[in-house]
User: Fold this.
Amino acid sequence: SYYYGSKAEGYLSRANYSFDEGLYVFEASFRRDGSSKFFRDVRWGNFWSVGASWNVTRENFMRGVQWVNLLKVRASYGINGNLEGIGNYSWQDLYMLNNNNQTEAGYLQDVAAGNRILTWEKQIQASVGVDFALFKNSLRGSLEFFNKINDDLLFNVVLPASTGITSQHQNIGTMYNRGVELELAADLLKSDYYVWSIGINA
Assistant:
């Protein structure tokens, strides 16, 4: 028989603050996660996020602008952790019982080498956006710029055949994904009985 499993432990805190019924909103979170999938010296990761929004339509200078129903500016920045794609014992050298193609029993090292400095993959994400609604909410949408960076990527790296071991999980590589996202929705026809709307995103 055998046992195959892992353990995780995490602590989460979060704070929200709204000023003047949503004129300004601030959010923050912090979490600390640990996993037995990593060696004890690098087992724990600290991850956090902050965000804020400004509801411009609640300002005094916007009260006379009747055709703007919503205008909100928002921004956020945060770091998350990821450990998907690795086994429960990737930091250990593993051995398995086997034989030498004869009758003698023995053991041999597994095909993957352990890595004691293997740790969390990190996802860093920042975004700035604007939400709006115009003409009695007949035209709605949002415009957002985002920048997502994945650092310390978890990869199963192929090792030279001369080592006798085929691969090892490592934190190697960085990848980014950034761009602008636009969403628009408009009510073309509206009555007491039906609404015909059209929406696009890019």
Remarks:
- The mean pLDDT is 91.
- The longest strand covers residues 175-190.
- The two ends are 54 Å apart (CA to CA).
- The CA atoms of residues 20 and 98 lie 70 Å apart.
